[in-house]
């Protein structure tokens, strides 16, 4: 049944994407840019509904009061494709620094260009990267929110942390708050897998880290607050969803975190 529901959801997900990109393109490209955000944000809300109805996966968000006004760096854990889009409706005017090849994809590339994303050649250095940084600063001065994944790429739930120092450099150079976000959607939408699992999980938006810290001290604090909250949430999520099959990383980390708890065995 899970396999069938996963197939149906994956099909509905891409049909929803393609249909909306075609049907709403006239409005998207003719409307005011910020008003046009309603198209992708409504696509996200539709995906949440499809995942709830077809698969049985739901979520809740804690800590929305921690989101500051104006420009900031939004720094979530990255475990699956779900967290690449799922929180867009709760951000005012977000943007990504992304590889320029994505802008070459027909129609999709025009969609992301319309939202003034910051494309970059990953092999670029020197003057080009300085220009990227200046464009990013201007976006933040305009009150936008830069989405950066501190670990760079998707990591399985429970995997050892692998934070990249690039976010500390951006924190130093951009001089804006960083909002850490932890969650475990990878338990329900595993990376590189087509299966989608039912259950309920939380997204926790943590208090922002104010600008002005030494980059090394910032990095130490970011890793500490995110991993502490992530570990606690992992245990809570696994205990609340005993039906979800655990990959080795999640099983191992759960065992480590609950080794001193006599009532912690997996149900």
Provide a descriptive summary of the structure in words.
With 267 residues, the chain is of the alpha/beta class. The chain folds into two domains: 1-55; 59-93 and 143-257, Glycerol-3-phosphate (1)-acyltransferase. 45% of the residues lie in helices and 13% in strands. The chain contains ten helices and seven strands. The chain has helices at 2-23, 25-30, 33-36, 38-55, 82-85, 108-114, 127-141, 166-174, 215-240, 248-257, and strands at residues 57-62, 72-76, 94-99, 118-120, 145-147, 178-183, 199-205. Strands 1-7-6-2-5-3-4 form a seven-stranded mixed beta sheet. Helix 6 links the parallel strand 3 (94-99) and strand 4. The mean pLDDT is 92. The chain crosses the membrane at residues 7-30. Pathway: Lipid metabolism. InterPro entries: Plipid/glycerol_acylTrfase.
Please outline what is shown here.
45% of the residues lie in helices and 13% in strands. By secondary structure, it is α/β, with parallel strands linked by helices.
Would you spell out the secondary-structure blueprint of this structure?
Elements (H helix, E strand, L loop, with lengths): L1 H22 L1 H6 L2 H4 L1 H18 L1 E6 L9 E5 L5 H4 L8 E6 L8 H7 L3 E3 L6 H15 L3 E3 L18 H9 L3 E6 L15 E7 L9 H26 L7 H10 L10
Helix pairs in contact: 1-4, 8-9, 9-10
């Amino acid at each position: 049944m899970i396999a069938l529901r996963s197939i149906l959801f994956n099909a509905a997900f891409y049909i929803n994407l393609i249909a909306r990109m075609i049907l709403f393109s006239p409005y998207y490209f003719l409307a005011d840019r910020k008003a046009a955000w309603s198209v992708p944000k409504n696509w996200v809300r539709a995906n949440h509904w499809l995942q709830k109805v077809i698969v049985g996966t739901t979520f809740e968000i804690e800590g929305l009061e921690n989101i500051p006004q104006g420009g900031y760096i939004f720094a979530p854990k990255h475990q699956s494709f779900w967290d690449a889009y799922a929180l867009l409706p709760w951000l005012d005017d977000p943007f990504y620094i992304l590889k320029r090849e994505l802008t070459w994809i027909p129609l999709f590339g025009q969609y992301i260009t319309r939202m003034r994303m910051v494309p970059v050649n990953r092999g670029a250095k020197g003057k080009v990267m300085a220009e990227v940084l200046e464009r990013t600063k201007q976006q933040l001065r305009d009150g936008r929110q830069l989405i950066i994944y501190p670990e760079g790429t998707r990591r399985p739930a429970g995997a050892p942390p692998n934070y990249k120092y690039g976010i500390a450099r951006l924190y130093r150079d951009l001089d804006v708050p960083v909002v850490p976000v932890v969650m475990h959607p990878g338990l329900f939408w595993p990376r590189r897998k087509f299966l989608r699992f039912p259950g309920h999980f939380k997204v926790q938006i943590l208090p922002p880290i104010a600008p002005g810290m030494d980059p090394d001290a910032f990095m130490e604090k970011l890793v500490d607050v995110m991993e502490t909250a992530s570990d606690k949430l992992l245990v809570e999520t696994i205990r609340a969803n005993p039906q979800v099959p655990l990959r080795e990383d999640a099983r191992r980390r759960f065992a480590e975190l609950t080794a001193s708890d006599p009532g912690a065995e997996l149900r």
